[in-house]
Each structure stands twice: as structure tokens, then as C-alpha cells.
Amino acid sequence: MKKVLFCIVCLNMALLCFGQPVKVKLVAEREAFVLFGDERYDLKKGEIRWITLEGEAMYGRRLWANEECILFLEAGDVLEVVLHENNELELKDDGSLCATRNNWLRKVNLLKQRLQYSQLIPQLLPKEYEGLNLERACDSLNVWLATYLEEYPADRKNFEKVMRTEFKYYRLLEENSIKFSRATFQEFSKDALAGFAELIPDAEDDRVVHSPSYWRMVEMYVDYLRVEDPRGLQGKGDRIYENELKLAKYFPKGTVRDEIAYTNLDNILYWVRPDSRKEFDKCVKRLPPRYAVILQKKLNKQDAERKDRKLVPENLFPSLSGETVDGERVDLSSFKGVWILLDVWATWCGPCCNEIPFLVKMEERLQGRNIEFVSLSVDKSADREKWIKMVREKEMKGVQLRLTGKKSELNEMLCISGIPHFAIIDPQGKLVWNALPGVSYGLIYRILKEVPMR
């Protein structure tokens, strides 16, 4: 009986702790904005803002206000963040374990930054960091953690696991020079793929999701899996949203799988249009309730912002034309009988230029299929030479055209609200996909790889 009572008491204490919210107090001594997780907070000078997190036992969050802080917060924690007039950020040391832990994390993050400097701009390194390399940095991190846990043993429960995971995957990322944001179409070494493979068994422990380096590798591995799909878990390419959920099944049931499914849908939320909303909503409902609620709120906000905008083209057989670098006029109708990937872009558009390497690699993978890759630049006549120079310097393949008609008519025809804008036209000239996520997401490749060979 005593054992039963003891278990009941322990369970109640655990539930009580789990139910305690995390509170972050933002104190603005200057006008500032703070990025915390997915949210942005605009603060006036003298303003105090409270952020409350509820429903989870622990949280890993990024906070940015002139500098980036990686925070680890557990149920019941209270952290005060002061934004000073001199632009410095302070995590108020009130003697709590929460403040101590997160100030220690700032020290860890600083060492990682110093290692980056040693690789890129060593001349800016302070003298005490001269000769810094990955081995030395990792040794220091492990010594610091051992010393910290000896002084604060209460953090062995969860924080130690998160940090051991962080150091493991931070090293893997650095050893394999994995620094790019998206891994779509990337070719990885055997060592890198072996590191990716460890992500799956490590996902058995829900706490690993709070390690930034672990999660960074997960996102890159998902990019790789989206294209390669070694176990064939995905369905037909046109089942975009459903496939994003299926990708998460490479990982065992638990927080990591749930987070992947949520993140995959969240990443392509911007491109959801009324004609595909029903399919997207079905996938959102398959998420755990706490994720579904977040996405539903984002969808409602997006719908409200777009309520007066035209999102679905009226004419599904667009009539477009442009000039080649040699000044020759080309009509889109001349490509009837083949599939067309249309990329509307401009030389002055940063995101457009970021898509070019991915577009080049996708064209190589799909070579020989019944597809024409048509890039339609909306650069003005005054920038024609700039457009020609970029096409040649970046060795852009496919059909390169510059719009000679009115940009407003093009925007109206395809319901373009921003570039890059990707669309797929079938062999009959019908617009079958419009406003797709960038090629770098891998979704367009999944659709076009099903097109037969010429």
C-alpha cells in the first residue's frame, strides 16, 4: 500500500511539474524587435513583454535580438532578457538554474562562433583563440559540460542528454563541412550518410529534438530523403502534402517524427492556394493536436491577409512569350507536346538566384525526359545586358527568355504575388500546377520525375 501511495505522489509531482508554464520576460531599454522561435515581438522603449510557453516538459528555442541565443527551458523556468540601450543583450542572472544554464549556453555558442572565425577570418580572432580547430573546440566543450554538471547536478536529468546529442552532431556537421541550408540534390560522402543514419535510432529519445545541431541534420536528411526515398515511402509526386507526412515515417514514432511532419507542412504553407486547401487541411488534421492548432492559426491568418487577392488563374491556358539572349521571339505555345516547367525570375531577386544551382542540378537529373525548362526573366529592358551576363556566367541551361510584354499582365495571368514563381504546364498547354515551392524544396522534382522519356 505504501508503495502504491508513493507512486501516486510521485506521479502527481511529475504532472504538476509538467503542467508548469515557462515564462520569458522581455525588458526593452530601447526600441527593438525580438525573434523568439517562430514569433516576432516588436517592443517600444521601456516596454516589458511576457512570453508564456505551456504544454511541454522542455523547450529548445532560438532567441535573436542583435545576437543569437540558443535557449534551453524546462517547465517552471522563468528567464529575464534585457535589451540594453547599447544594443547588448543580457540574460539576467537571478541565481536560478535557468539563468545559469542559459548563460553557460551563450559561452558555448561563442566558442562555436570563434571556430567559424578561425576557418573564415582568422585575423579577427582574439589571441587566446589562436590555433583553434575542431578537435580543440570539441575537447573544450566536453570539459565545460563535465564541469557544469558537477556543479549543477540537477541538470543531469534532461540537459545533459540534449548537450551530449548537440556536441555529437555539431562535430558531425563540422567534420563533413555540412553548412548549406538545404541539402536537395546534394551528394554526400559515406561518412556523412553514416552520420545521417544515426539520426533515426537517436530519435527514440524525444529529448534530442531540442539539440539545434541534431535538428539541423534532420532537416538536411529529410531533404535528401525527399529526393532519394530509398524505402519508397512516398506516393505519386502530385500528392505533395501527403508525401510530406510520409517522409516523417523514416523516423520512429515520437516527438522527432511529429516535429518533422509539422515542419514539412509549415515550410510549404505559404504556397497553399484555395484549389489545394482541402488536401492540405486533411494532412493538418493528421498531426498531433498541438501542431494542428498552430498550423490552423497560421492558415487563418494567411487567409485573412489574402482575402482580397486573386489566387487562382481564370485562364488555364496561358499565352506567354519572351525574347532569347539573341533577341529572337519565342512563344510558349511552340512547346506544345512537352511538359513545361516555367520559372519566373529576375537578376535582382536574391531568392531567385539562390534557386539557380538547384534548378541546374534538377535539369541534369531529369535529362532526356519530355520536359522543357523555361526561365522567364522579368528584368526591364534597361537590365537586358545584365540578364544576358548572368545567364552566361551561371551557365544557365534550358530555354532562357526575357519578358517583353507587360509584367502586370503576366502577374494577372498567373496570379503572381512574388518571385521566384514556378508553374507546370502539360503537353496540351494547360496550367496544371501553379505557385509551387522552389526547386530547392524537391517537390517539383518529385512531380517531374514521373514524366516519361522523350
From TrEMBL:
Keyword Disulfide bond: yes
PROSITE patterns xrefs: THIOREDOXIN_1, THIOREDOXIN_2
CDD domains: TlpA_like_family
Family annotation (Pfam families): AhpC-TSA (PF00578)
Locations listed in the record: Cell envelope
The keyword Disulfide bond appears for this protein: yes
InterPro entries named in the record: AhpC/TSA, Thioredoxin-like_sf, Thioredoxin_CS, Thioredoxin_domain, Thioredoxin_ResA/DsbE_sf
Residue ranges constituting the Thioredoxin domain according to the UniProt record: 311-453
Signal sequence, start to end: 1-19
Keywords recorded for this protein, A-Z: Cytochrome c-type biogenesis, Disulfide bond, Redox-active center, Signal
Protein name in UniProt: TlpA family protein disulfide reductase
